[in-house]
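Problem: given the chain below (465 residues), write out its structure.
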Amino acid sequence: MNGAILPIIPENITVHLGRPNEAARNVTVSFADYIKNVASSEIYPTWPESAIRANILAQISFALNRIYTEYYASRGYDFDITNSTTIDQSFVYGRDIFENISQIVDEIFNDYIRRRGSVEPLFALYCDGIEVQCGGLSQWGSVRLAESGLTPYEILQYYYNDDIDIVNDAPVEGLTESYPGTSLRLGTVSDDVNLIQTRLNRISKNYPGIPKITDQPGVFAAGTEDAVRAFQRQFDLTPDGVVGRATWYAIARIYGAVKNLTDINSEGVPLSDVTLLFNSRLEEGDTGIAVNELQYFLAFIAAFNNTVRPVNIDGIFGPTTRGAVEDFQYDYGLTVDGIVGEATWRAIYGTYRNLLDSLPDNYFTSFTEPYPGEPLRIGSRGASVSYLQNYLNRISDVYTSIPKLSVDGVYGSATANAVREFQRIFGLEETGVTAAITWLRISDIYRTIVDGEYGSDTQFGTSVS
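Solution.
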């Protein structure tokens, strides 16, 4: 995914001027110039504007799908896409660009199509619809639809079904490879580990010889190592249990294949599969959900370590939060700068998990359990999921748009939908994933309904005042 968990618009794209295995030049051009070239090569500037816009959006999405899935990088190539029209789309290096097409591309080059519920750009297959037929957009057919009055979005819905969205104004960034640069191995804790765990668990559905990973998300423990070794044996890689570059890209390639990500009817990548566990950098002045989660962990740690000052969970990284970070860094032998970089974040998260795991089962005396330390999402199982389902069921007595759940300890689509509705009601990001801030808000609302208490002395459900 070229270093991005969610899709970005690349500043530049490298095009191979031939078929993948053909000896040919690679050229690197800006992404906007690439789309202008493709559009000028594939369609006519005299077409109705609605047809031109629909075709350009398909061309953008097609290219972004190649980049997001690292289709060529995961196969060992040093380019992002080819100009072979049998597998990619037309690109004629150095050709003239039509003025009206150039203007439209400048306006929409950072928009793309995605399937509702998925994050990856749609593999927007298209063909001319006369000499070549395909299961996607018909270029000449789009002209007829535009002439009949359909908008660009309606044209795209006609060919790609109603469950598509247009993402507008996606961020533009430089491309970097997704491989983190250092091998992942036993003991590594990072979002890259979480990504590999998610992908291997999905691959194991098609290759049952690869065991399911039940390790803590983001933590490279024995179960992750066993799954990596099994994958490596399955695909003729050195079975050392270490995710180096070759294994990383082999996993990316097989993951894309089993989910059919380069197919118009792909399984898709849900947002829950790319939810970040660790933040790369937080500092004074930052705001938002990531700060909420940091403050939650710090406040919990402060309840057991009186050398770390308590903080309010308000999503604002102010002087008090900076002071708590500095307290923690001093106590745990880290550079004392008040900035939450990767090392500090991992230490805070690890300390929270260790505290949680060390407490006796009967320690918690209030109505709610503390956050289990890892995001709950589709596929999660266990007591924490049962607690969550119970809390949501009680909340749904008051907020009736939240559906009732079976308390079975299994985080399926029904639980994700109930969480998503809760998040909608209370102004949280609607991911369907229960990370720290969602857990805390559910706990607060549940306790408020049950006994009216909002007290900070019980916000973690502990006996510590």
